[in-house]
Amino acid sequence: MPLINTTYQPSFLFKSTHVNTMFKTLFYSNKILYKRSRITTEDDDFLDIDFSTVGSDTIVIALHGLEGSSTSKYIVSLVHFLNSKKIDVAAVNFRGCSGEDNKQIYSYNSGKTDDLNTIIYYILNNFNYKNIILVGYSMGGNITLKYLGETKILPSQIKGAITISVPVDLEGSSNALSHWQNKIYIQRFLISLIKKSLVKQKKHPNSSLNTLAIKSAKNFIDFDNAVTAPLFGYKDAHDYWAQCSSKQFLQTINVPTLLINALDDTFLSESCYPFKEAALNKQLFFETPKYGGHVGFNSSIIKKDILWSENRILEFINQLIS
After folding, report:
1. What are the C-alpha distances in Å from 22 to residues 17, 201, 269, 295?
2. Who has greater pLDDT, 11 or 48?
């Protein structure tokens, strides 16, 4: 695995992991006028994909993180930037994340790769793109890496992938997010997840979901034991994390893939930096900036440069399609 010497050198303000993590969410203001396509899935559900196209022969499939959507600021920033560089983007909304509850009682999880496969083949069957690039953030990055590693034969149009701030070891990341310094983040995740799960419980009253267990969830082990594991057929949270962590799939990725995890990312445990596991794979490029936070990588307010990761993504895309 080639280890990349990073070019990321932020200003003093963005050497704070929490400032870097929250900055785009609070201050980025661009908007995208998407064209939405709804895909019907084999299990009688749907996926909403938001397209922003400029007539390119290259399309990026952008996958958001936990409880994000195509309107998450980091996705909008990427779409706006790539469109300005004449690259089309399909921004994924995982099930239940497009503003409308999906039909099935289950929605998505950190290892549910079949929906990504459905999206890829929808694009292949309905468009004529020469190049498809996957870009995944956080949970979307874990899904991307797992998909690439577990899929034996990829369509030739998939030229590679870029993944940012990825919890490649889900249990390690869950433990990291339980630390006091991440309280504001995990509470925000849980408020959204619990609210959605209670709606599901009301719509599907004969399910095995336990209202008290859902409402009592204080961390991801509680939530995944109460909701994710029973809905997706895992024994418990530990079984879900073990089966769905992308770390075990890294060595079998066979297209050029860039993984960027900041060393100061408080969402990630030491086990989320896969130096040893990925060392044998020449197709995996691992970059570990000293700073960056979680899906941050802002550079300087004075220079109005908050787009280091977008520029880095573009640089790697150009290498893939050149």
Report:
1. 9, 32, 19, 9
2. 48
